[in-house]
Amino acid sequence: MSVPVPTGLAPGAVLGILGGGQLARMLALAAADLGIRCHVFAPEPDSPAFDVAARHTVAEYEDEAALARFADGVDVVTYEFENVPAATAAFLGQRAPLHPGARALAVTQDRLSEKSFVDGLGLAVAPFRAVDSLADLEAAVAALGRPSILKTRRFGYDGKGQIKIAPGTDLADAYEAIGRFPAILEGYVPFEREVSVVAARGLDGAFAAFDVCENEHRDHILAFTRIPANLGRGAAATAIDAARRIGEALGYVGVFAVEMFVLGDGAAERVVVNEIAPRVHNSGHWTSEGAETSQFHQHVRAVCGFPLGSPGSRGRIEMENLIGEAALRWREILGEPGAHLHLYGKRDARPGRKMGHVTRVWTDRS
Amino acid sequence: MSVPVPTGLAPGAVLGILGGGQLARMLALAAADLGIRCHVFAPEPDSPAFDVAARHTVAEYEDEAALARFADGVDVVTYEFENVPAATAAFLGQRAPLHPGARALAVTQDRLSEKSFVDGLGLAVAPFRAVDSLADLEAAVAALGRPSILKTRRFGYDGKGQIKIAPGTDLADAYEAIGRFPAILEGYVPFEREVSVVAARGLDGAFAAFDVCENEHRDHILAFTRIPANLGRGAAATAIDAARRIGEALGYVGVFAVEMFVLGDGAAERVVVNEIAPRVHNSGHWTSEGAETSQFHQHVRAVCGFPLGSPGSRGRIEMENLIGEAALRWREILGEPGAHLHLYGKRDARPGRKMGHVTRVWTDRS
């Protein structure tokens, strides 16, 4: 038995959020604007989202007693990360409306099912092969060539769980390096740029995409997002249409991101879908000051069954992630005209840790 | 002994806020963006700010044990309302930096000291007389004429604690009606419009004023604020200069509002100071989407000793208060392009109660 989302949620309702990191924190801040109270559920006692939520629970995602108490006290459940255990999602989904739903999680938690799903929609993806053994890997490399990329099917993010198969790479070593986990091999895509579409789908099926944004990674971590993306009108329309079709096929409710590679230029320009994130996304952080509606407000609107807001953007925008010690520049950033600082309340600026971000907006007035 | 504000507060610091209403709530939301944790102290168990604060204390403002525990756990104290008891301010000020300081509270808590202070700066105010007895009132009315307005010196807001002395008003009845409290009589100012200047002064003395805004009251409660105000350049400069001088004379740190009447037109246009609010102010709510820096972020910056942000505004702006059942229009407002809804999480939409507000921004792009 799954619980239908009531269409009648109203301000005063309680939104349950699984995960207590910066995405949950920014969701809770947006929810407050709409008069929605948040209950954050996360295992880490010092979760950044706890500081801005009406209630929080510190418990493991496998703790069914804690999950039951949580579900009984909220009107709808959402999450900030795609690796919610399937059993947790199923357990919660029987007790409260869960958005995005179990299908979005199942498809996007596994790179093989994700790629197969996107491919099945007729959208461009990199060529791929399932790899469940060294023999599979050898056959896949023979088919897709080198360079190619070996990725674990599950739990990869920010470049973790993947290894490049270069001309000289020993395949047994590579398979060992990713821990012999179920994997896929992806053919090399000679992309020029990376873009993403952050979009929302409402409970009523309405769809609203933010402007396509261009992403610059450093050390496999998002460093900058820029609006507008360097992308022709045709390719941008294709990208947004791909997001729309993905959202519809998943019966999706909430905000999601589709990361894409851009190949070629001019008339030959085209986009290839790389990854789907069933949640608010780092490449959508620019919307807090750069769009009419932020991705966080939009997600809260969607999962509560409220009308979606306008996704229109306000000008030329840059989002810069503050990774590790970059956050120590906070005072300088506060002194920078037009810069909007967001810090996540994390105590320890470890290398590679996302500590905050800055949004810079240049409107026609500035 | 008073405690100097350290110039070195940094993200991770704890901001203590006295009062738990919507102003404290919006301060806490802004503080979170800057990585500042909040501890809200208020007597009402269902205070709206509790839902978004890392910690809260439910206690009376006279509870010194609770105040001491509060002060010991925070890095700086601020407040959302000007009627903080003097003893409470003094008690806290000995244990933690208090911003705005005790002088700002003392001057603005009492209409007589406030008017005398503004008058002493050479700024235009309505003529006024102290009224401590019926005889005082009779003498004051003889001097200032009718119509005039009798106001209690303390604890008035939104039109409470004041009564108009019209040609037919019986003075003994009027004095009875305001409870025979210490009062002042203010001469009638035949104003055309009401405006306010919301401004900030930093720990380093820096000053930043938002654009002068025009306020429309209904039933003595702010109904609309609009930017730009209908005010000539000269009068606007005078208004902002008045705010600057008030801030400097108070040694003020934080955001404050100066409400003013506008008299005359064209070259004869002039402003008369009506009231000072030593806190973020309803007439500054438009800054959340309408200015580069919101008044809430600005106040947190100021009291933490951070650099002030740019107060520049983004276009033509309207803020509409949602009073009582007006908040039931939330779904319609969510569907309105360009409207930004803010609800305060109050459960009970009583008549006259501020439940939320809407900001509408028309930029050059829209």
What's the number of domains of chain A? 3
**Which stretches of chain A of 5+ consecutive residues score pLDDT under 50?**
none
Query: From the alpha-carbon coordinates, what is the Rg of chain A to the nearest angstrom?
Result: 20 Å
CATH fold-level label of the largest domain in chain A: D-amino Acid Aminotransferase, Chain A, domain 1
| Shape descriptor of chain A | globular
Helix/strand/pairing category of chain A: alpha+beta
Tell me what the CATH architecture of the largest domain in chain A is. Answer: 2-Layer Sandwich
CATH superfamily of the largest domain in chain A: ATP-grasp fold, B domain
Mean pLDDT of chain A: 94
Most extensive interface, residues per chain?
Answer: A-B, 43 and 43 residues
Strand content of chain A: 25-35%
Helix content of chain A: 25-40%
Order of helices and strands of chain A: EHEEHEHHHEHEEHEEEEEHEEHHEHEE
What distance separates the N and C termini of chain A?
54 Å
Query: Mind summarizing the main beta sheet of chain A?
Result: 9 strands, antiparallel
Class of the largest domain in chain A, according to the CATH hierarchy? Alpha Beta
Quaternary status: homodimer
Please report the number of helical segments of chain A.
Answer: 11
Give me the count of strands of chain A.
17
